[in-house]
Amino acid sequence: MVRKKNKKKKRAAETQAPQKDRRMIWLFVILGILAVLVIAPIVVLSVYVDDWSRDLSTNHAETTQSNPNPLLQPLTIPGDRNQATSLVTNAIVHLENWNIESISTEGKRTIIKATRKTKLFQFTDDIIVYLNDVDDGIQITATSQSRVGKGDLGQNPRNIAELMSKVRTQLKP
Predict the structure, then answer these.
(1) If phi over 0 gives left and psi between -120 and 50 gives alpha, with beta otherwise, what is residue 149?
(2) Residues 60 and 41 both lie in one domain
(3) Are residues 137 and 157 in the same domain?
(4) pTM: predicted TM-score of the whole model, two decimal places
(5) Strands 98-106, 124-134: parallel, antiparallel or unpaired by DSSP?
(6) Which of 37, 40, 64, 147 has a CA positioned 20 to 30 A from the CA of residue 79?
(7) Calpha distance 131→86 (Å, rounded)
(8) Whether 73 contacts 63, CB under 8 Å
(9) Torsion (CA) 64, 65, 70, 73 in degrees, nearest 10
(10) SS3 114
């Protein structure tokens, strides 16, 4: 009788050991998945955010002469405003998720208003392109503003850089 009880205890212990092992394996799998879900967004953000002090607190960007990035500086092109308007609108039409909202002329300036939707959350950014008459042609400047949020994670400077890059590639023969 004693032997039977000991055998039953041994069998019970033997069946509990694999169950404990399976539980531990599942615990590690779940912890691993949680770690990936927490770490992956941080890695993705670190790739997209260029300037943490700017990108977390600013949702506006514009072209300026002092910007170290040449794609975020005003661009002067030869020709008249009609040619420049055609060039910029053609660039916008060929950019993914961009739409032209309006084109207006005010004195010696043409204003092109466009929008761009982000891929993941479909946030809308407003981009305004100014075509100004200058002595040696037309100067193209731009602003980009997010409609929501305090920071843009660098999307507004990327909007301007994407547009200016497209315009520059269209200028090359």
Answers:
(1) left
(2) no
(3) yes
(4) 0.73
(5) unpaired
(6) 64
(7) 11
(8) yes
(9) 40
(10) strand
Angle between helices 155-171 and 81-93 (to 10 degrees): 120
- pLDDT at 44 > cutoff 80: no
* Residue whose tokens read 């193209």: 140
Instruction: Determine the structural domain holding residue 26 and report its residue range.
Output: 1-48
Is the distance from CB of 100 to CB of 91 less than 8 angstroms? no
Contact 72, 61 (CB under 8 A): yes
Residues with Cβ within 8 Å of residue 110, at least 6 apart in sequence: 81, 84, 85, 103, 104, 130, 131
What's the total number of domains in the chain?
A: 2
Judge if 44 and 57 occupy the same domain. Answer: no
* Span 95-135, pLDDT tens digits: 999 999 999 999 889 999 999 998 878 889 999 999 999 99
In 3D, which of 107, 118, 113, 108 has the Cα closest to residue 149? 118
